[in-house]
Amino acid sequence: MCYVCSESLKDPFSQCARHLLARTLVKARENGLSFLVGFEIEFVLLDSSGKSPTTLDNVEAWSTMGGLRGKNLVIMESIVGALEASGIAVFHFHTETPPQLELALEPLPPMQAVDSLMLAQETIRHVCIEHGYKATMITKPLLDNASVFSSVHTHLSITPSDSENCFLAGLLHSLRSICALGMASYDSYVRVKEGSETVGVWVSWGTQNRGVPIRKIGSGHWEIRTVDSTANFYLLLSAVIAAGVGGIESSLQLRLKDCRIFPSQMTPDDRLEVAIDTRLPLSLRESIEFLSQDASMKKWLGDILWNSYISTKKRDEAVFDEMMDEPRRQNMLKYF
Hints:
By secondary structure, this protein is α+β, with helices and mostly antiparallel strands. The protein is 40% helix and 14% strand. The protein has helices at residues 17-30, 71-85, 110-130, 164-173, 175-182, 233-249, 268-273, 284-292, 295-301, 303-321, 325-333, and strands at 34-46, 90-95, 101-105, 134-136, 152-159, 205-207, 214-218, 221-224. Strands 1, 2, 3, 4, 5, 6, 7 and 8 form an 8-stranded mixed β-sheet that branches. The radius of gyration is 20 Å and the shape is globular.
C-alpha cells in the first residue's frame, strides 16, 4: 500500500485517504482510544459467460456444507492458503445467500486491517482466475437473481469501551453522510430495503439485529452494515472513527435506543418509542447531498479531499444513471 503525495499542494498529502486515516488514528490515540477492525468479504463466482456456474454441488443456503464439497472448497482452501502465506489470518469462510461465498479476516488495527483487505480482495480474484472463474464483489452481481447483494460488513471494536455510547451516538449522527463513503456506487442502494437482512431503511442500531445498519455484537463492538466493496476503506474508516471520536469529545448522548427487532415489523409509534425517526438515503445522489451538507465531515476529511470526493461521486452518479442495468453491471465488473 502507498500514500498519495501531490507536491503542487500546500499540504502534499491533503488528497491522500491513507494519510487521513493515519492522522485520524493519531487523534484517537490522543483521546486514549484504540481500535480493531475486521472485514467480511462476500463474493460471487462467474463463468466466462458472466453467469453463476452450475455444478453438482451448488451453494444452497447460509453456512452449510452444500456448495463446499467440490471445486468451491478447493478454491476457498487455495485462497486461505495464499492469504496465510502472505501473513493475513482468516477468521472463517462459509457459504452465504446462494450463490455467494464469504471469507472473514481476523481483526487488526485499522491501517493494517485495510491493507490486509486490499490484498485479500486481490488474492481472491487471482486465485479464482487460476481456477477458471471470475470473482466479483459488486453489490448487484446477478441481474437474474434479485436476492443476491454483496457487501463488506465491517466490524469495529473500541478500547476502552466505557465511552462506547458517545462513540455510537457520533457514528449514528453522521451515518447518512457516511453512507456516501461506505456505499459508494450507484447500485449500492439496492441493499437499503425494508424488512431485509441488509441494512434496512432507518438510522438505527440493535443488539444482534441484522435488520439495522449498525449491529451491536458486544461491549464496544459493532458491525457496520452500510458498506460494500466500492468504498475507499481508508476514507471510510477515517470518517467512522472521526465521527465516533467527535461524539466522545462533545459528550453526545445516545438518543436512539437498542432496537431488538426489524424496524419494518414495528408500528410508527413503536419506532418512536426507541427514537427511530430518520430514514437512510435511498440513492447515491441522496447520500452525496447529505455529505455535501455535513460541516463536521468537511472538517474531518479536509476541504480538498471532501470537495474532490463529492465532485467525483456526482459525476459517477450522473454517468451511471444514464445506463441500463446490464451495461452498468458490465462496467462495474471490470473493477470490482
